[in-house]
Amino acid sequence: MSDVRWGILGTGGIASAFTTDLLATGLNVTAVGSRSEASAREFASRFGEPTAHGSYEALAADPNVDAIYVATPHPMHAKNALLAIRAGKHVLVEKAFTVNEREAQTLADEAAAHDVAVMEAMWTRFLPHMVRIREMIAAGTLGDVRTVTANHYQRFPSDPKHRLNDPALGGGALLDLGIYPISFGIDILGLPTRVLASSSPTVTGVDRQTAVILEHEGGRQSVSQFALDTAGPNVAMVLGTEARIEIDRTWCTPTTFRVIDSNGEVMERYEHPVVSRGMQYQALEFERLITSGQRVSPLMPLAESVAIIGVLDEVRRQIGLTYPGE
Ligand SMILES: NC(=O)c1ccc[n+]([C@@H]2O[C@H](COP(=O)([O-])OP(=O)(O)OC[C@H]3O[C@@H](n4cnc5c(N)ncnc54)[C@H](OP(=O)(O)O)[C@@H]3O)[C@@H](O)[C@H]2O)c1
């Protein structure tokens, strides 16, 4: 078992999925915190009886916790992460890191002030197929990489109270789904020099269906399409002058890909079975930061998470999407 002691903040869907992956990998979950004592106890009973705290404050104050995973809706991320940072904990924050860049910068500043590691849980970046894709690009296999395309379409319930539809919970396709292809484009091509967005809203006023073109250095482009009411292929491509990579569905989860040269010949097929859902790779990177004394991951630098939220702010400005209290 590893030395890092994890605390889970929130007991919803992704908290369960992440905890399952931590335990399947032999990592150490010592506590859970919920707004409700009953939920904390129910969660603990499913995951080997870590200490159950009936408040996030009690979890943050637990001396037997080193790292806290924030798994609440996006508008709560900044407040919940600050609580943990100020208690001296290392914090892994679910995507979207925060609702806006101002909140993201505050987390970065506070992380530095308290000398703790803070990382966005953009789990896709840490998956084995993504590591291999970055290796191939760095080795020049694709030539000059000009274009990244990725889509992320899911069909969520139309219930206006559902998290994805509710403005008070940071609803909309952008913060939940669009962040994956946008973050991928930036991972491969760097921060954009220009942002172009088009969208249509749900009846609740969040973005339903959105397309974003990012222009990058040298006229390169990343193109992201996403929607919350239509299931889609969820594939991605990285196109270079010498070859392209086609990532199979669902591209942002553990999956397969092919490298195809400019004549259409398959140069490589990548297949790498992954145990569990695959969220353990981000946890292992976060543990590596903690145990090595590093504070920022080269795979998901904190400054880049802040900049990505800034890009999302610009998308929201262009499509006219604001959240309560902004
Ligand atoms: N990495 C991924 O693949 C992935 C997948 C899905 C979601 N996510 C991210 O994870 C975060 C949570 O998503 P989820 O699908 O797990 O949501 P969820 O199932 O609704 O769970 C959210 C949890 O947050 C806590 N919470 C605190 N304030 C809340 C409020 N006002 N309303 C509702 N819940 C509140 C609740 O836990 P307590 O009642 O115990 O306090 C709740 O169980 C989001 O930021 C989302 O983008 C990531």
Order of helix and strand elements from N to C terminus: EHEHEHEHEHEHEHEEEEEEEHH
Taking Cα atoms only, what radius of gyration do you get, to the nearest Å? 19 Å
Bound molecules: NADP nicotinamide-adenine-dinucleotide phosphate
Q: Remind me, CATH topology of the largest domain?
A: Dihydrodipicolinate Reductase, domain 2
Total strands: the figure is 14
Per CATH, the architecture of the largest domain is: 2-Layer Sandwich
What gap, in angstroms, lies between the N and C termini? 43 Å
Mean of the pLDDT scores? 98
In short:
35% of the residues lie in helices and 25% in strands.
Description of the molecule:
By secondary structure, this protein is an alpha/beta fold. It has 2 domains: 5-121 and 279-295, Rossmann fold; 128-273 and 309-319, Dihydrodipicolinate Reductase, domain 2. Helices cover 35% and strands 25% of the residues. The chain is built from 9 helices and 14 strands. It has helices at residues 13-24, 37-46, 56-60, 74-86, 101-114, 128-138, 173-189, 280-292, 302-319, and strands spanning 5-9, 28-33, 51-53, 67-70, 90-94, 118-121, 145-153, 194-201, 207-216, 220-227, 236-240, 243-247, 257-261, 266-270. The strands form 2 sheets. Strands 8-9-10-7-11-12-13-14 form an 8-stranded mixed beta sheet, covered by helices on one side. Strands 3-2-1-4-5-6 form a 6-stranded parallel beta sheet, sandwiched between helices. The longest helix is centred in the last third of the chain and has 18 residues, at 302-319. The protein is globular and about 60 Å long. The chain starts with a strand and ends in a 7-residue tail after the last helix. The model has no long low-confidence stretch (mean pLDDT 98). The structure holds NADP nicotinamide-adenine-dinucleotide phosphate (NAP). Residues 10-15, 34-36, 39, 71-74, 76, 94-95, 123, 163, 169, 176 line the site of NADP nicotinamide-adenine-dinucleotide phosphate (NAP).
